[in-house]
Design goal:
This protein is mainly alpha-helical and 157 residues long. It has 7 helices and no strands.
Length: 157
Amino acid sequence: MRAVLIGIGATAVVDLWGLFVVRVFGAPATNWGLFGRWLGHFPRGRFVHDSIAKASAVRGELLLGWSAHYAIGIGFAALLIAICGLGWARNPTPLPALLFGLVTVAAPFFVMQPAMGAGIAASKTPKPGPARLRSIANHTAFGIGLYLSALLVARGG
């Protein structure tokens, strides 16, 4: 139950950070529908796309993308607790959460972005540098969210 609450909280922090970046800096919002589209092609045996935006739409892709986004956050929280132990979840400290958040940027850099047609670490995008920084910032926000959520759960509130 701790992993579920911590994962949901940490993922919500990422989403709040994303809203801030969109409103303050005018960056485009993350399109979780495209992530859902990528996942929706898995049952058809298609895991890699030249451009996920040009791939055929999948029914319910937006819901699938958002649901998977939160499920992955929960899974990452469970993995952090498995690595650091339940003691960390009962008495969280920031360093493991921040480091773990940064490590999770490997998922988009080396799995999602290449498979969706953006290349390793967004290398095939028009502006790879800003795309990379945004991924790193998002996963740093996730790490902060892991710590804050764990702290909140540990304090029963």
